[in-house]
Amino acid sequence: MKKIAIITGGGSGIGLATAEKFVRASIHTIIIGRDQQKLSEAAEKLGPLCETIACDLNTLCEIPKLVQCILDKHGRIDILVNNAGINMKKELVEVTDAEFQNILLTNVTAAFSLTREVIKAMLAQQINGSIINISSMASQYGLPKVIAYTASKAAIEGMTRAMAVELSPRGIRVNCIAPGFIATNMSAKALNNDPERKQKVMSRTPMGVLGNPSDIGDAALFLASDAACYITGVILPVDGGNSIGF
């Protein structure tokens, strides 16, 4: 039976690269995002095993309907990749409460809400499912000027461990990937406008290069596969050694 996967933020960057790896592995992949044009371009590139749903996951009340719609069409959900996220670079004292809450809503609350609904379906059908959360190096050590993003990714890692302990006895593995500095539009914007920050990033990355989105896609495909059947609750850095760099 063909596996069904959901990838949030699947229209570009890490999400798109992960969708590409899944489709090549013959997994029917549903990519979710806010920008229908971006999603359509991705689906055209990925072919018939890729399906798109335009949805703003911040509208939490729509999430149960979204999951039910996927279940009505496909009958099951095997894999969920919580990749959608936003960042904001700003001095801590300038971050407003509304800005902080908005990042937590997108990066944490929406991911939790979607995961909860998908898990309900997996448990009801006794599916050996796989949940993969996307964290960040920001949760591994202190990064200045990204306080809300850092808080959100630390929350994602904590949720990963708690979910893994609660759900693994019931056949659902929960893991997390912590990407290092990956060559995406988001990271390019952050680094190219700040040469000093970029130099610091490169100097403490033993491999000496930025990662590619496909590196994260490969890790996600592994964690979703039977090859990782005894792996749960891990936070896997995919970072060229950045997290242990001097």
UniProtKB/TrEMBL annotation:
Top-rank taxon, per record: Bacteria
Record key words, sorted: Oxidoreductase
Pfam families: adh_short_C2
GO MF annotation, one: oxidoreductase activity
InterPro entries according to UniProt: NAD(P)-bd_dom_sf, Sc_DH/Rdtase_CS, SDR_fam
The EC number(s) this enzyme carries: 1.-.-.-
Enzyme class: oxidoreductase
Cited NCBIfam families: PRK07231.1 (NF005559), PRK12826.1-2 (NF009466)
UniProt-listed PANTHER family: 3-OXOACYL-[ACYL-CARRIER-PROTEIN] REDUCTASE, SHORT-CHAIN DEHYDROGENASES/REDUCTASES FAMILY MEMBER
Family: Belongs to the short-chain dehydrogenases/reductases (SDR) family.
Protein's name in the database: SDR family oxidoreductase
Lineage of the species this protein comes from: Bacteria, Pseudomonadati, Bacteroidota, Chitinophagia, Chitinophagales
